[in-house]
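Hey,
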Amino acid sequence: MIGSSDPRWTEGFTSLSNTRLHYAHAGQGDPLLLLHSNGCSAYEFQFVIEALARQHRVYAIDLPGQGDSDPLTAHWTYPMYAQAVVEFMDRHDLSRATVLGTSIGGVVCLALGQHHADRMRGLLLVETPIRAAQAWAARWLAVESNFALPVQPFEAVASRIRNLTPELHLRWNIDRSKAGAHTMMDAMWAVREYDALAALAQLAVPAFALLGSNGPVGDSRQALEAKLPAGHIVVMDNCGHFPMIEEPASFTQHVQRFIERL
């Protein structure tokens, strides 16, 4: 588990031009960067990072303003998040990398493909929302209800993560409290302002998508199917927004198969 005393894991901080990022690292081989969903952290990948590290040099990065990375001091756009990832790659001498992002992490992947395609070996979009601004506006109260209240009761989180444990619930509220309501809502405003549909249409990097059959971004599937080649989209049955937590073994297998096809 990330944060344990296991000597195979390392954690650290990388200073960039305008912020400092916390990360967890394991493994050797071709680099694989993991970007978490809104209000989470590198811990989101705690059940899959060890298996992925058997074949890859894995970095699970806390997004700016979240986890143990430095707080935000201004509004961040998704091209800014993408630039931070590229700077992180520069600091670690990674000329190219495969990047996997969950939810808003997947939106960062779209911005990486749009602005830094030459640095990307491939992109893996996990439960990534791809909507027009009007669609976001129509569901904005639900967005605020989710992200403007950082601490959530067990029952509310259990409706989103199958087989939730007390330990996972505690981690959920710790990470959301670290990020805070303002940073989480800032990330959602940035999603609402970002033209993800255009970014997907312009994508010139090999990309795959992984969705949960019970996840909240099923409305994005049509856009993904219109852009990605046949066989580049997998829907995991009985999974929601966090397949890496609910079905870690199957999640890892799908990710490995995607990467082998790059």
